[in-house]
# Entry
Amino acid sequence: MAEYDRGNQSYGASGHHNHHHHHHNTISKETTLQALNTIIQLHFEKTLEKKRAVDLQKKELWKLFHLFFLFLALIFVAQSQSLRLQCRHCWVPIGLISLGHLIFYVSVAQTLRCINGFKYQRRCHKLTLGLATERLRQLQIRLSSGGALDDMGEDLEIHYQEPPDTYFGKFKRNWAIHFGFLMLIYGFMVSSSVVLLCF
# Structure
């Protein structure tokens, strides 16, 4: 009888331990899934936030372009219709064109820097979001097939992702295109000033 009682006690302790371990696993699973979902939600929101910031800066860029071309059009019309401006005065429109280009160049440089910065951050968030989503998918597959969390180990850690260095090449190309375009416009405006006033 005493042995039976001892056996009963032993079984009860063992049963309690198994229940506690199962309960701990359930909490651990839920916590891990919740943590991954939070990471995914955070980076998804950050991706959208950076996209909105890029769109805003692009609108600013277009405003700058419109103002710049309006300024150049006014100078062009003033030169072509003015009877008082002569060849010796061509330094005036050229000076104004040069100043306008310099201001525009600095403004565009600042806006492009912001756009590129936001684009880079958005890319980082997208990469991290992709990694977290993939890890969540793997975790769900493993748990549904009866696997344990411990098997995944470091796979559950989500590190902030950054694009490779080649990603910066795109920014350099964009910058070169804008600068080349600006130089082309500058050359055209200076030469048209000389032609309009001296020939």
About this structure: The mean pLDDT is 81.
